[in-house]
From TrEMBL:
Organism from which the protein derives: Maricaulis virginensis
Chain positions recorded as ATP binding sites: 105-111
Family matches, as InterPro entries: Mur-like_cat_sf, Mur_ligase_C, Mur_ligase_C_dom_sf, Mur_ligase_cen, Mur_ligase_N, MurE/MurF_N, UDP-N-AcMur-Glu-dNH2Pim_ligase
SUPFAM superfamilies: MurD-like peptide ligases, catalytic domain, MurD-like peptide ligases, peptide-binding domain, MurE/MurF N-terminal domain
PTM description: Carboxylation is probably crucial for Mg(2+) binding and, consequently, for the gamma-phosphate positioning of ATP.
Gene3D superfamilies reported for this sequence: Mur ligase, C-terminal domain, Mur-like, catalytic domain, MurE/MurF, N-terminal domain
Record lineage: Bacteria, Pseudomonadati, Pseudomonadota, Alphaproteobacteria, Maricaulales
Gene: murE
Single biological process term from Gene Ontology: cell wall organization
Family: Belongs to the MurCDEF family. MurE subfamily.
Positions with a binding annotation for UDP-N-acetyl-alpha-D-muramoyl-L-alanyl-D-glutamate: 26, 28, 147-148, 174, 180, 182
Span of domain Mur ligase N-terminal catalytic: 21-93
Domain (Mur ligase C-terminal) ranges: 328-452
Annotated compartments: Cytoplasm
Protein name: UDP-N-acetylmuramoyl-L-alanyl-D-glutamate--2,6-diaminopimelate ligase
Annotated catalysed reactions: UDP-N-acetyl-alpha-D-muramoyl-L-alanyl-D-glutamate + meso-2,6-diaminopimelate + ATP = UDP-N-acetyl-alpha-D-muramoyl-L-alanyl-gamma-D-glutamyl-meso-2,6-diaminopimelate + ADP + phosphate + H(+)
Length: 484
């Protein structure tokens, strides 16, 4: 594409309009001949430090926020280069699924988009979802490594999906993604909100900034005339709904306190839950084959979005009755010969861990045993809180490592243990899981929290292969072999 096709005429010198742009990137390491390199300010450094590398690799245009002298290629300077990059990406990759739903909130985004994909697919829509688990269409999954990919990767993915016939996309909107303009230029027809509790205070200076970043979905990203589906059980949700109403969005409220979708009752059964709710005044009762109240909240959020899209009530209810779980979210990986279950979950926030431990209790006659740790280079103020939550909800705790990244793993565990001084400490996650499995008695339940679907342990910049589900199955196998 020529520069003149990508940008308004006054954004570049007239003689530069004919420059051919062959690709876009914000990472100098990915520059190829003819690419536009967006040198963006970052948390650790500024992309302008890498302009020489980008030029050496053949960059044709630079987009940044401060004038750069001495280059013989066009340099476009703007106060908001990340936002401009996203607009360029939307022009470079012009196709998007016609109906894009974006889900935000601290917890429940991946589950909600996956459930929505299942409902749409059952209704015959060509549907996909995009988020922490990657891009999922049917049974195919492509990993992106982000909850909300960078603007170029995101617009490229949307274009590829639309070109491939996908009409309905449910995507996750992270606070990082919203604040960093990764989603600018996406025509979002529905925004949804699950909940807001503590997370990411390593990146956001305070909780208010975290809230305002999520609020951008409703204040800016959902298109004019679009819809908002908001869980209003928390004060934060009620504020989101207010923002959406002020924008003039068609605002649907859901949850225990929801006006449009009101939950009446959720009753746990051994491997499912009985759920009653009202949608626009009509009462419905059904059994959903998932455990954990939070999974029902996510499933009903997906249901409210689909019902608002015009999917038949019967199709929505029929899908909920056969809903498939999400990888690494309360995923049962096996059980002992005494039928004590082992479940892997992605709880990595205080609220997530609290909800997880509460979810296990009604299904457990004996002890709830939990193995977990906290991530390095992530909100350190979560650690002690998660320890304290485990201490108050679990019967036995094993504190271990979870992606220490650049931090000292022992210091992370020590911070967690401040909240649960009685816990066992086993640094090696594999050994911690084996210990948890070895302890299981009749009626007990083992929860392995924090890594869910992840397939690696990140230590000092290296990702070592590691999968909680495989480790748990191995440990269960060893336990059974020892019984023979
Ligand atoms: C905190 C955060 O959002 N970090 C993202 C951010 O990095 P940064 O601000 O630290 O960038 P930087 O290292 O200072 O570099 C500044 C600029 O120079 C560029 N650069 C850097 C080095 C180089 O050699 N060449 C180069 O061009 C970078 O691409 C960047 O544009 O911009 C980078 C480029 O897009 C991202 O890769 C990086 O994601 C890091 C790896 C990350 O871990 N992000 C996580 C926290 C994240 O984004 N998570 C959210 C939310 C998850 C959730 O809700 O649970 C997600 O949406 O995935
Ligand atoms: N509605 C909810 N309320 C509270 N906790 C939840 C809820 N839904 C999920 N969780 C917890 O959060 C974990 C992650 O769930 P999920 O992946 O759906 O959320 P997410 O917002 O996509 O998080 P991430 O972007 O980090 O993957 C679950 O394994 C569970 O422990
Ligand atoms: N998307 C979250 C996931 C955290 C999962 C946990 N395993 C960790 O590494 O802290 C993050 O990057 O903060």
């Amino acid at each position: 594409m020529k520069l003149s096709e990508l940008m308004p005429e006054d954004a570049f010198a007239p003689e530069d309009g004919a420059v051919e742009v062959r690709g876009l990137t914000l990472d100098s390491r990915r520059v190829e001949p003819g690419f536009l390199f967006a040198a963006l300010p970052g948390v650790k450094t500024h992309g302008r430090d890498f302009i020489p590398q980008a030029v050496a690799q053949g960059a044709a245009v630079i987009l940044t926020d401060i004038a750069v002298e001495g280059l013989d290629i066009p340099v476009l300077v703007t106060d908001e280069p990340a936002a401009v990059l996203a607009e360029l990406a939307a022009r470079f990759y012009p196709r998007q699924p016609e109906h894009v739903v974006a889900v935000t909130g601290t917890n429940g985004k991946s589950s909600t988009v996956e459930f929505l994909r299942q409902v749409w697919s059952a209704a015959g829509r060509d549907a996909a979802c995009l988020g922490t688990l990657g891009v999922t269409r049917g049974t195919a999954r492509e990993v992106t490594g982000y909850t909300t990919p960078d603007a170029v990767a995101l617009h490229r993915a949307l274009d590829a999906l639309a070109s491939d016939g996908v009409t309905h996309l449910a995507m996750e909107a992270s606070s990082h993604g919203l604040k960093q303009h990764r989603m600018d230029g996406v025509a979002v027809s529905v925004g949804a909100f699950t909940n807001l509790t503590q997370d990411h205070l390593d990146y956001h200076p305070d909780f208010a900034d975290y809230f305002v970043s999520k609020e951008l979905l409703f204040s800016e990203r959902v298109a004019e005339g679009g819809r908002a589906v908001v869980n209003v059980d928390s004060e934060w949700g009620r504020r989101m709904a207010e923002t959406a109403r002020q924008r003039g969005l068609d605002t649907v409220t859901i949850g225990w306190r929801g006006e449009d979708l009101s939950i009446r009752e959720i009753t746990p059964r051994p491997a499912s839950q009985d759920v009653s709710f009202a949608w626009k005044g009509a009462e419905h009762s059904l059994e959903i084959p998932l455990v954990g109240e939070f999974q029902i909240l996510n499933a009903l959020c997906a249901a409210a979005i689909a019902l608002g899209d015009g999917v038949e009530t019967e199709t929505v209810l029929a899908t909920l009755r056969q809903l498939e779980g999400v990888p690494g979210r309360l995923e049962k990986v096996g059980e002992t010969r005494e039928a004590a279950p082992v479940l892997v979950d992605y709880a990595h926030t205080p609220d997530g861990l609290d909800k997880l431990l509460r979810a296990a209790r009604p299904h457990t006659q004996g002890r709830v045993i939990v193995v977990f740790g906290c991530g390095g280079d992530r909100d350190p103020s979560k650690r002690q809180k998660m320890g304290a939550i485990a201490a108050s909800q679990a019967d036995h705790i094993i504190v271990t490592d979870d992606n220490p990244r650049s931090e000292d793993p022992a210091a992370i565990r020590a911070a967690v243990l401040k909240g649960c001084p009685e816990a066992e400490e086993i640094a090696d996650r594999s050994a911690a899981i084996r210990r948890g499995v070895s302890m299981l008695g009749e009626g007990d339940c083992l929860l392995i929290a924090g890594k869910g679907h992840e397939t690696g342990q990140i230590v000092n910049g290296t990702t070592l292969p590691f999968d909680d589900r495989e480790e748990a199955r191995k440990a269960l196998g060893e336990r059974e072999a020892a019984h023979v």
